[in-house]
Amino acid sequence: MPKDIASTAFFRISFGLLMLWEVTRYFKYDWIEQQFISPSYFFTYDGFSWIKPWTGFGMYIHFYVLAILAFCITIGFLYRVSTTLFFLGFTYIFLLDKTYYLNHFYLISLISFLLIFIPAHSFYSVDSLLFKNKRHKTIPYFYLLVLQFQIAIPYFFGGVAKLNSDWLQGEPMRTWLPMSAKETPLFSNVLEHSYSPWIFSYGGLLFDLLIIPALLWKPTRLIAYTFAILFHLTNAYIFSIGVFPWFMLIATTIFFKPTWCKVILQKIPPFHSLKSKKIKSNNLSLGLFIGISIYVLIQIIMPVRHFFIPGNVHWTEEGHRYAWHMKLRTKSAINVIFITEENDNKTKVSLDDYLTNRQQAEMGTHPEMMWQFAQHLKSHYKKQNIKVTVASFCSLNSRANQLYIKSDFDLAALKKYKSPADWIIPLTTELRIKKEDN
Fold this sequence. Notes:
The chain has 438 residues and is of the alpha+beta class. The protein has 2 domains: 2-307, no CATH class; 330-437, no CATH class. 52% of the residues lie in helices and 7% in strands. A hairpin with a 5-residue loop joins strand 3 and strand 4 (346-348). It is globular.
């Protein structure tokens, strides 16, 4: 059954504007230089080691092009080309270095991929003015459901991920809120209150699990969105999480009645009396239906795969990415990496010679990245059969530091990372809050 395209067009316009804002932030904070030009080494994703940063001024040109494409998506100009190139361009940035993995970057790649196939430009766009034969005021309901599904996924699995013992005991909120209080003096007394970690933890859990059912049910939709506004504005104010709360705040409107924003969009002069062709309800190819159905299945499988891997996912990091584990843990580590040469000469590696401070911090709490860096060191000593070991201590969610990696394990000798990694020492240290309660 066809649905009015208004809410889908609003989604497209909002997505384009937010992406334009996100791209400008890379220029404003000099992230292009810091993340993609200055580093000499990049922690690439498995299977994507061939992706490298552009040389010279290329990375800046890349972001200028992304800004242009985001603007084209906003106004709906050459929409199919713009969404395809934006998806490829942004995903390229995402894949350059896993150091900067963020769930909302992953979500942006997914949304931009879906928009390639969703005709969100059929009306309220430059394309609809230029190409009369592709002008439609309605859209197959299937596309609307796909967008709703994609927005529901981070909420639902974000809630499922919170059903872990640390979160239910108030961590890491108990650690973060006092630090946030220093940056937000207006609410410092509230954030430092002893009840606040419990309110934030259980409030966030209930919000994530209940928001989608409440949005889908018309009688509770307005109340649910009011809570969504409070939730995302609070996150935006207290935590530094960039574009994510603003994106979710706007994207959540996709659960409203498709005509909710029609009055606003029709005020745009060219669309006052613009006529369109009627779209048939079966205007959806079987191939596209099957393809998106497979995509949906993958999105359901990826967030639960860590349940089939032994160990605490927040400790081992195995299965942590693509599972919507947002703001669920805080980790710090002390790492010293050693190289032992064939003559048994053991030396400490100066990480500053290879990695940025951000890369060192991320590697220290991700065993897979430690192994990856060991392979990089091995490639520098091709003429020697070196050993790479690490003295690593890590703290998870207010726990005391614990030995993280087997200190005698040769990371360079491991040709491929296999999960579960038996050289990661299991988490045995308890939360400090437990000891205090006893």
